[in-house]
Design brief:
single chain, about 120 residues, alpha+beta, Lipocalin, ten-stranded antiparallel beta sheet, 2 helices, 10 strands, about 20% helix
Length: about 120
């Protein structure tokens, strides 16, 4: 019985650590985002999934549910702000933080996981 209880406790601790691990990371500055994110081909997953490309000219392209969309982006301090050109969020600016989880792997404060392709 002690072995089963110990195994369950160890399993629960490992599961708890696995859930908390992605929360760790380094919040990025605008300079770091420009260097690591802008101009790079990215994949993303979250509420939707697809591909992203933030161009240096302040425009970006993305796919969601297999459809292509466009938008614009800019920085407000160290936050990236985007305006999507889709019918659901057209003209609405949304600002978010980028967090480096590990090299080439990121998450946003909007809950998306992002990686370089």
């Amino acid at each position: 019985m002690k072995t089963i209880t110990r195994t369950i406790l160890i399993g629960l601790l490992l599961a708890l650590f696995a859930v908390q691990a992605p929360a760790a990371g380094t919040k990025m500055t605008a300079t770091e985002i420009t260097k690591e994110i802008v101009g790079k081909k990215l994949g993303y997953s979250g509420a939707f999934s697809g591909n992203l490309l933030y161009a240096r000219n302040g425009k970006f392209n993305y796919t969601a549910k297999g459809k292509a969309f466009k938008g614009t982006w800019r920085f407000k301090r160290n936050r990236m702000c985007t305006i999507l050109n889709n019918k659901f969020r057209k003209g609405i600016e949304s600002c978010f933080d980028w967090v480096r989880v590990k090299p080439g792997r990121y998450r946003t404060s909007l809950g998306y996981k992002v990686w370089r392709r």
